Prior knowledge:
Largest interface: A-B, 54 and 54 residues
Largest sheet of chain A: 6 strands, antiparallel
Oligomer: homodimer
Amino acid sequence: MQPQGWESIRDEVSARIRARLWAPGDTIPGEETLAQEFGVARATVNRAMRELAATGVIERRRKAGTRVALLPARRALLEIAVIRLEVEGKGAAYSHQVLEDRMEAAPPPVVARLGLPAGTVLRRLRTLHLADGQPWAYEDRWLNPAALVGEAPDFTQVSANEWLVSHVPYATGDIAFSAEGAEPDVAVALGVEEGAALFVTDRATWTEAQPITSVRLYHAPGYRMRSAL
Amino acid sequence: MQPQGWESIRDEVSARIRARLWAPGDTIPGEETLAQEFGVARATVNRAMRELAATGVIERRRKAGTRVALLPARRALLEIAVIRLEVEGKGAAYSHQVLEDRMEAAPPPVVARLGLPAGTVLRRLRTLHLADGQPWAYEDRWLNPAALVGEAPDFTQVSANEWLVSHVPYATGDIAFSAEGAEPDVAVALGVEEGAALFVTDRATWTEAQPITSVRLYHAPGYRMRSAL
DNA sequence: GACGCTATTATGTCTGCACATAATAAGCCC
DNA sequence: GGGCTTATTATGTGCAGACATAATAGCGTC
């Protein structure tokens, strides 16, 4: 069954673009025109076009109109789940061990990323996440104690990430992915050879007021991050 | 300056959630109620709430109402750009070399991924992408010739990905990221040691009717994929 | 032609109303 | 209480009309 309403318009416009009826770079008819053609209100066309613009298929500018994107940069939506849920989603039992928890002067890359003065002392947490007792990911986290006003969580019970996500209100952040060879301590913790290729996630988060945490996750070999395109 | 209109409502609701005025798991007031409180039409509140639902902050269900997400799975929007643009965006000159281009029986993982019968013969393209003459990424692509009806592109001129993106209408696809140790041929092409940790992108695309291509990209060491969170 | 101002125009958003839809809650029968 | 049907309700979507906004296009001046 075909979709109805604004989705049908989105699909029809999308189909015309894919069929090159409207070629990349072309300006396509205005909302008013399309609304008449499809026999709907302009708001309905707008809804459909907004959706297509969000996926990068078209580019819209006031007055200039709507044009088919020249090189549609595909957009993929990544779901960054809490590790526990990720592990449990695989049908495995989740557990974690805190390997280290102490105050330490953060190294330059970390303070730079968080926008703190050089030499700032942060709480460093090293954690091993396990799935059915097997190493799943090694976490190296720097936590700004100033961001945890009055709260004293026990990270041996609840993982730092999970606690932060549901207790510290935060606004922004960024995330980066890369591949790294396992350093000695990481290799030992994950039980892999030194230099083994590991999938690494780097994340930093801030509130409006101050930096909260910078965390690096070394995923065990074989880890894949998936998404629909 | 504060945003106005639906964005101000989105921000206000978001702020109340972060301030735990509405705690995770709570059901928040209905659209009609909020519309009255903010002095706007329900459609405006709906717009704001739809946006928050899309970012995973709230979960909405008809009749059940709107509730604050318990464990907000962060969503990151990845922009998958064409390699040429990625390289040029770094201020480097892009070029590429086709290392191999021939028909070959696709191995089991590839046919499985594309949903083709075992032993199907596909066009295999191995390409090296360069930035300022330095290896940037090694591409191993399997292309379904049936998907290129009548068209005969010259992939030594335009990269396969770029040509496909702007010439083959396609509907769906999926993408996965992982870390792999460099195999011998990849290591040679990229000029790195065997076993070096490489960031790998696997992508498969289909039209409604048939599979188009399956491609694996080995990025040169140091590659980072970034996104706002 | 180079400039700066103004008119025009397509998209962006809002309102107020209506009906559709999905899912819970309530009622009913046994 | 268990299992079914029906009513209720919050969200989802639609429409018509209006004004806001951004950016181009056109005009006039020099």
